[in-house]
Design a protein that fits this description.
- There is one protein chain.
- By secondary structure, the protein is an all-alpha fold.
- The protein folds into two domains: 135 residues, no CATH class; 52 residues, no CATH class.
- The protein is 49% helix and 0% strand.
- It is built from 14 helices and no strands.
- The longest helix has 15 residues.
- The protein is globular.
């Protein structure tokens, strides 16, 4: 059985999302079904709770990560690199574009990004899953038929959000985590570690519960299993780096 959501349903789930995003999901139902996301309430809840955390329910401006940090924020975000804001200013100064230099260096040679390139700031978080890094852009783009490596801005366009989410979900193999009731494991595979786990848990079953939004919409679907601790993910299952 496939859960079919109408415009009013998507609006109830993501009340602050632009109309263009809502319309895209109404028209992109087949993409979510093929990925298995709408085959059970559990899968749908896991997917949408994580998206709600990543891009604030598609309310993030331009669906693109804002890298205009202050020095204090950079130090808080990467404390192992920068003991304080003064260290950030010493490394990158305070002139125009210093944030881009910082992001390029921090994310250099990680997530498929090249050393000494602007890959870090080019492949910043975009779209519902907040794709980050050249590897994610390449992997998801291959699966949804979009050239995200050469045109990363496509990942933030509203009309492509169902395709982006479906491709990301399929690439990460998240149906297995949802079917096992392993929300923590889903988060770990989503971002490689439990980043923002408290907010994600709150999104699915706490102050801003995705479950209550889906209850009436998915009355015939299986009941969500309790959240279980995530097992250790074998190294063999870790995402591979792209070869480009």
């Amino acid at each position: 059985m496939v859960l079919v959501l109408g415009e009013a349903d998507w609006r109830a789930i993501f009340p602050r999302a632009p109309t263009s995003v809502v319309e895209a999901f109404v028209g992109g139902a087949a993409l979510l079904a093929v990925a298995g996301i709408t085959m059970s309430r559990t899968r749908l809840a896991y997917a949408l709770a994580n998206v709600a955390h990543e891009c604030d329910g598609y309310a993030l401006p331009a669906l693109t990560e804002n890298i205009h940090y202050c020095a204090e924020s950079v130090a808080r975000t990467w404390p192992t690199r920068f003991p304080d804001a003064a260290a950030v200013r010493k490394a990158y100064g305070t002139g125009y574009g210093w944030q881009q230099k910082a992001i390029d260096e921090v994310y250099g040679e990680r997530m498929g990004n090249g050393r000494g390139t602007n890959d870090g700031s080019r492949y910043i978080g975009r779209g519902g899953p907040q794709l980050t890094g050249r590897e994610e852009y390449w992997e998801v783009g291959q699966r949804c038929g979009l050239d995200l490596v050469n045109r990363p801005e496509l990942a933030a366009q509203p009309r492509f959000q169902p395709a982006i989410l479906a491709a990301f979900w399929s690439w990460k193999g998240l149906n297995a985590q949802a079917d096992a009731g392993n929300f923590h494991g889903c988060v770990e595979k989503w971002k490689g570690r439990r980043i923002g786990i408290a907010d994600r848990e709150a999104r699915i079953a706490g102050r801003d519960t995705m479950l209550s939004r889906l209850m009436n919409l998915a009355a015939l679907m299986p009941v969500l299993e309790p959240i279980r601790p995530a097992p250790t993910i074998p190294a063999a299952l870790a995402p591979r780096r792209c070869s480009i």
